[in-house]
Amino acid sequence: MATYKTLSSKLNWANGLPEASTTMIVAGGLEADGSVMIPHLVNSVFERQGQVILLSFRHPFNHYLHIMRKMGVNASKHKLQFVNGLVETDLSSLPPATRPHFTLSADWQEFYSWLNAQPPSLLIIDGLCSLLDLGHDVKTVMSFFTACQQIVGDWSVRAGGGYAGLVANMLLDEFTELLAKSLIRRSHYFFNFEDLESGASTDVSGQLTAIPGHLHCQIQNSGNKFKPALLHYKVADTTVQFFSPGQSSTIL
Amino acid sequence: MSSFRRNTAGQQTTKPPPATRLNPHSAQLLVSTGVPSLDDVLGGGLPVGGILLIEEDRQTDYSSTLLSYFASQAIAAGHELCIVDADQEVALKDQLPGWASTAHEMQAKSGLNDKSSAGSTPDEPMKIAWRYQNMPRIDSDRDDYDGKSSKDSSTLADARETPFCERFDLSLRIQPKVIEDATIEIVTGASLLRASNEDHGGDMYKCVLDRIARLVDDRFSSLKPAAPGANRNILRIEIRSLGSGFWQGSDSLSILKFLHRLRGILRYSYAVCVVSFPAHLYEDGGVRMPVVRRVEHLCDAVIQLESFEGTFATPSDIVARQSMPAAAAAASDYHGFLHIRKLPRLNSLTASMGRLSLLHSGGGSTNNLAFRLRRKKFSIETYHLPIEGGVTERRVPAKDEAKGNRQQVGAGVGCGSTPGRSDPLEF
Predict the structure, then answer these.
(1) Which residues of A touch B264 (CB under 8 A)?
(2) Interface mutation target, options B212, B267, B297, B356, chain A, most CBs of A under 10 Å
(3) Residue of chain A nearest B361, judged by CA positions
(4) Do A35 and B349 touch (CB under 8 A)?
(5) Can you tell me the distance from the alpha carbon of B186 to that of B195, in angstroms, rounded to the nearest whole number?
(6) How far apart are CA B186 and CA B172, in angstroms?
(7) B246 touches A at CB < 8 Å
(8) Contact A235/B259, CB-based, under 8 Å?
(9) CA B103, CA B93: separation in Å to the nearest integer?
(10) What is the pLDDT of residue B362?
(11) What is the rounded CA–CA span in Å between residue B123 and residue B144?
(12) Does A237 touch chain B (CB under 8 A)?
């Protein structure tokens, strides 16, 4: 996972992660998907012996396990809990390795109480904007997000807890613009993955813009100062390389 | 030979479904769309459990050609087929192209396909374009690409029985008896409207989704173990013109709910879905509505057909263009552009197209793809600009014509020459 080091050093993140109990919004487009951040964050938490809860509205557990295995992350050795938000059917017949630990139903209170009972973890929500597709309005989605944020805040207060944080990955377009703007107001960091501004290239998959969110000024630890950055990246099957514009290893 | 042998007695060996292969990079089961070049563009085929969205062109109907290939491939491969069309009744006998491989097999058996009988077999060494000898070919008949990948996969045994992609001929029609023997479920306009009114309060999306969910749950769910001795099969779902004016939903977001739930059902099944979508109906003042982008996000692969005839033209323009011989000749090379909006990324962060595609091997030509519909087949090719002036009109005068012209010039007053006499120094 050495390829993410450029990203971490550019953002002034020690050990590849921001301060505890921070909220990050990752947005992507049709071809430039922000889910390339997920393996990096999961691995960084595992290196700290922390735990991860992954709630996905987009893919089954198997999809993430395949990707992480190829990137050298053995999820079975660490504490990764998967919450299925894709289907409401019973998935208990799946093999234990790919069986979700919890299934999100129409009643979100069940999920909140299950989440509250978990030890401090990094909560990753992949495809938060899918709630809009299911007919919920922005206000309802924001209330879901705020509830998750509060639980993560409670985890941080607990004594002797591990790393806790919240990451929401979504697809940014005209339909989800209002949701994205509302989320940025409730976040510390915003990462926007988009197609290369200068046009398509075989050596560069896209560009990442990292900017502070509205809550960034509330971060107490001023030692690691976050710098807004524009980076290019190249996604391969087993690695994701981040580099400064014009510094692609294949070009140089 | 080593004396150690792996004990495989206890392991259960499940046979993969017919006419499928594994993508070696993502361990994803693939099926063919029926068009080899489209399979190539998608990275080897359509992933099982995925949705391919075809954005229809404006005035023409090339997307239905792709859908008919998909349905014919289902019948050829022995897959089950479900067709949903809210607009009109489906007449498969008149729409589906037949395949020509039966004749090829017979030729092969009788030895007619030998090197000696064929005029220019691909194995014969090339004398002129010898550099192209070792290049792979995109052809379903002798599909090197197919052969290479199927060696990697574990479907070698099946590949001998049922080819991954059949070779279709648009000038032929599939035999009615073959259609009758195939397992096809057709859900069309009138019956769909009746069923949705009776059980789902007039919501067609819910009605179709319910039907698909029941079908998948019956025989194609990956959550249920296969019956002992029974082989898995693939369900191909074809939804024509989803979201057109004939589709009735409970609200404006019904299409998004439908696609989200369909994706959930397909992910845990042995089913694959192709949806054609009239995106031009979702425009407001020439600008696409935001819902189109959401529809694209909810599908695993998105391609758009942009025909030269219909994209930015009114019907009167199309008629006028047909009467112009030069324009008609130029349009005969390609019929439109194929835009790739999104490629399948199941079990992977990257699309496997970049590594596997032959159409993209040149690099930098990612979006320069065009399609052409010939008499017998539909194909996708890398777009090249035509030769300047075209090949129909002679740009260099013929020998006799040139001589005549020179004599005509010679008859006038030349530079340093006697009138009426050809001078070798004449210019």
Answers:
(1) 86-87, 89
(2) B297
(3) A202
(4) yes
(5) 13
(6) 22
(7) no
(8) no
(9) 20
(10) 43
(11) 12
(12) yes
3-state secondary structure of B134: coil
Q: Is residue A233 part of a domain?
A: yes
Determine, for residues A171 and B302 on separate chains, whether the beta-carbon distance falls below 8 Å: no
Instruction: Please state the domain count of chain A.
Output: 1
Q: What share of chain B is helix, strand, coil (3-state, %, to 5)?
A: 35, 20, 50
Give the residue among B212, B232, B329, B288 at the shortest CA–CA distance from B58. Answer: B288
Q: Where are the domains of chain B?
A: 20-105+135-382, 399-427
Give the Cα separation of B275 and B84 in Å (integer): 9
Rounded to 5°, the CA angle B194-B200-B204 comes to 65
Lowest mean pLDDT of B252-256, B316-320, B411-415, name the range.
B411-415
**Chain A positions in Cβ-Cβ contact with residue B362 (cut-off 8 Å):** none
Number of A:B CB contacts under 8 A? 89
Burial readout B215-228 (b: 16 or more C-beta within 10 A, e: otherwise): bbeebbbbeeeeee
Dihedral, A55, A59, A64, A66 alpha carbons, nearest 10: 160
Burial class (CB in 10 A: 0-12, 13-18, 19+), A118: middle
pLDDT digits (tens, 9 = 90+) for A16-27: 888 888 999 999
Contact by Cβ (8 Å): A178, A12: no
Residue A225: CB atoms within 10 Å: 9
Joined together, the tokens standing for residue A221 give: 């630890």
Please report where in the chains the tokens 């409670």 appear, as a residue.
Answer: A154
**Test the B interface: residue of A26, A57, A87, A234 with most B CBs within 10 Å:** A87
Residue A231 sits in a domain whose CATH number is: 3.40.50.300
| Closest CB from A91, A173, A240 relative to B223 | A91
Indicate yes or no: CB of A63 within 8 angstroms of CB of B346: yes
Among the CATH numbers 3.90.226.10, 3.40.50.1820, 3.30.70.20, 3.40.50.300, which is that of B20-105+135-382? Answer: 3.40.50.300
Range of the domain at A199: 2-243
Q: What is the pLDDT of residues B338-363, one digit of tens each?
A: 888 888 999 888 887 655 566 665 44
Residue A248 lies in a domain: no
ipTM, two decimals, is 0.91
Helix axes B189-199, B204-215, angle to 10 degrees: 100
- Coil, helix or strand for B273? strand
CA dist., res. B383 & res. A48, Å (int):
51
Kindly give, in sequence order, each residue whose CB lies less than 8 Å from that of residue B108, ignoring residues fewer than 6 positions away.
none
If we measure between CA atoms, which residue out of A99, A6, A101 comes closest to residue A51?
A101
What distance in Å separates the CA atoms of residue A169 and residue B197, rounded to the nearest whole number? 38
| pTM, full prediction | 0.82
Strand ranges (E), B124-200: 168-173, 184-188
Residue A251: inside a domain, yes or no?
no
**Residue among B55, B53, B52 at smallest CA distance from B288:** B55
CA neighbor of B199 nearest in space, from B209, B184, B188: B209
pLDDT at position B70 over 90? yes
* Residue A113 within any structural domain of the chain: yes
